[in-house]
Every structure is written in structure tokens, then in C-alpha cells.
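Our consortium's second objective concerns turning raw sequence data into structural hypotheses that experimental partners can test. To show how far this objective has progressed, the report includes one record in full. It was chosen at random from the queue rather than selected for favorable results. The single chain below, 191 residues long, was entered without modification.
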Amino acid sequence: MPSLTLLRQSHPLADPREQVRLLERGDSLARFDQTLQQHGLPPLTATSLDVLQVNVGRLCNQTCRHCHVDAGPDRREIMTQDVMQACLDVLRRHPFSTLDITGGAPEMNPHFRWLVAQARGLVPRIIDRCNLTILLAPGFDDLPQFLAEHRVEIVASLPCYLEQNVDAQRGDGVFVKSLEALRRLNGLGYG
């Protein structure tokens, strides 16, 4: 049986306000800036902005037990095309080298391909943080070819090299499907 998102379980941590409350309570871990100060280190400051990472939604074809954004098939929060346009405007105005697209399964956002196509002329590097199994899902069969044609880098991971462990964390059949997706990507020149 697939695991459920925190939202579907009506878990208190599905509410971002509860997450913030717990983090601000401050009884579990010292704040990072305080730890640096305790060790006589200066605060970290950015010297440049090179990567624009855009989370385009929580919709996903998997329900991973460890998902830090609580993504899943029951999550419908997605970035609109208007907000994506605002992101593209930022890319036009600033010299970012990379657009890093993440989600859920970012490819499930109905405007994903539009975003990639529009961004292609704006940045030298586009990354798709992909769970691999989406590449085999109905309606997404042509996605590997689209990604290759638009020179999109794919960042994917499996939580383990053992089928049993991967399937326990990500769902039955995910390991085998992920390997099949990798073979398809290899056939298109990835790898």
C-alpha cells in the first residue's frame, strides 16, 4: 500500500505554520548563525547568485516517505504560468547561469515544457530534478526526447542500490521503473 502524504493523513506537520512554530521553538537545534558565532566564525554571506531554483509544485506521481515537501498524487499546489513568467523575467534581468527546476515531480506541472522552452535562450544550463518514473508514466512518454532536445540536465537519485529498499521508500516497482527510465535516457545520449 502506498504511503500517504502528511496532508492526506491530516498530520499537524502538513501545516507550514506548525513547521515554523516548531523551528522557532528552538529547543532542538541551535540556529546555524549562532553555531558559527560560537566557533568564532563569521556569518555566511552570498558573493553572487548563480542558480535560480524554482519549485513548480507539490504534485508528484510518487509518495515517498522521506519527501521534504510532502509531495504526492493528492497534492494539487502548482506554480501558475504567470508566476513562471515572473521567474523568466528575473532570468532576463540578472546573470544567472542555471535554472534548477524542482517539485514534486516538476514535469507534472502543465506549464513545465513551456517554462523549459522559454528559459532555454536565457540561461546556459537548465536542470530538471527528476524522479525517473515520471518518464515512463502515461502522457509523459515523449518527455525524455523533449528534455534531450532542449539540452536539459537531469538530476535523479535513488535512496539505495537495493530494489527492496528503494521500493520500501518510494513505492512498489519504483526501482525497476527507474532503471528502465535510465536505459531510455542512455539511448538518447544521457549518461
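The partners drew two points from this record. The chain has seven helices and four strands. The two ends are 33 Å apart (CA to CA). Both points have been shared with the crystallography group to help prioritize constructs.
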